[in-house]
Amino acid sequence: MEEEQQPKDVSALTNNDSGPQEGIMPTTPSSAPTTPGKEAESQENPKLFDKDTAVVKIQAWWRGTLVRRSLLHAALSAWVIQGWWRLMLARAAEKRRQGLLDVFQQEEWAAVKLQSWVRMWRVRRCYCRVLSAVRVIQAHWRCHTCVSQGLIKGQYQATSGQLHLELEILQGSRPCYVSECIPLPIKQ
After folding, report:
1. Which residues does the annotated region (Disordered) include (predicted)?
2. Which end of the chain is more exposed for a tag (fewer CB within 10 A), N or C?
3. What is the DSSP letter of 23?
């Protein structure tokens, strides 16, 4: 009866699906309560104890391998997700940066355009003032020239022997009319 109990304990330890348990070791004859029949059994069949220990060790190694494999898979999956997330963050930051650059460029263009219009308006206003002053000066100069030097209007007619002139001289407030006929010397 005790022989059947020993393999049941080993199978109970090996069928444990909760993973490797480092603190649990199979019961050995030295740690089990000593009975005269058990000591005899372990001494008679030392290979059974070594076989059971080897089975437990293999199962613990395999469970550890499975756990390490699942942890490696989880770590690789987390690494892939982190890489993807960093890429998404970089793309979002680049999109935000590009948007800010576009807004900045539009604001700069608007400021330059506004400055250009203000400068153009100031230069045009200055030009219009100068043009108005030039027109005033020209009008006064022309009036002064006409009054001080007078204005001569006239027409002439040349015939075969004489030159007929009619002149109107405007000087001061009254016009003066001159009409003359000048004989032309003809060489023969």
Report:
1. 1-46
2. C
3. S
DSSP calls for 93-118? HHHHHHHHHHHHHHHHHHHHHHHHHH
**Residue 132 near residue 153 (C-beta atoms within 8 A):** no
User: Contact, 146 vs 152, CB < 8 A?
Assistant: no
Cross-strand partners of 154: 167
pLDDT along the chain (188 residues), means of 10: 43 46 47 50 59 89 96 97 97 97 96 96 92 87 66 76 78 76 72
The token pair that represents 42 in the structure block: 């372990």
- Give the amino acid at 30: S
Residues 6+ apart with CB under 8 A from 99: none
Question: What is the C-alpha to C-alpha distance for residues 127 and 125, in angstroms, rounded to an integer?
Answer: 5
Q: Which of 59, 8, 24, 32 has the alpha carbon at shortest distance from 42?
A: 32
Q: Decide if 42 contacts 29 (C-beta within 8 A).
A: yes
Q: Are 139 and 147 in contact (CB under 8 A)?
A: no
Beta-bridge partner residues of 179: 166
Q: What is the rounded CA–CA span in Å between residue 84 and residue 169?
A: 100
On the 0-12 / 13-18 / 19+ scale of CB atoms within 10 A, 42 is middle
